[in-house]
Amino acid sequence: MVADSQVLRPKSLLALAISIVAVAVAAGIGGLASSNAAQDYSRLEQPSWAPPAWLFGPAWTTLYILMAVAAWLVWRSGPWPEPRRALAFYAAQLVLNAAWTPLFFGLGWRGIAFAELSVLLILLVATVVLFWRHNRIAAALLVPYLAWSTFALCLNFAVWQLNN
Predict the structure, then answer these.
(1) How many domains does the chain have?
(2) Is the pTM of this model over 0.85?
């Protein structure tokens, strides 16, 4: 692990900035595609265990912050080529994260969104495993995201079936 004295070095700060921008872009894409998501969500038939629409904003804000910090911790965990694979998996799942909202809300393709989220979960599990090898705190920071995404997969499936 990198010494704490390296946290404020320009390279480390650049890595943190890139990590924050990456999750902001993913969140922004989702936000653009979901400008009417709360209304669309309330119009859908949902299972009894579906959370209220207001919960998604605070939940995702928290998860995106944890994700950015986790990626930053892995980025600075060792000499550059070492964390590359872990960060590539992270980037791939982040792209899928950004794509889910346009699929589910923007296009209304609930079945395709379910399949896409299934692939995202596989990549996310691999990302957690790879992050664990570099920084256990980083891996632990992704566990709430993994749990939420697993719940989202179940909710996506239920909503898809109820509104098919």
Answers:
(1) 1
(2) yes
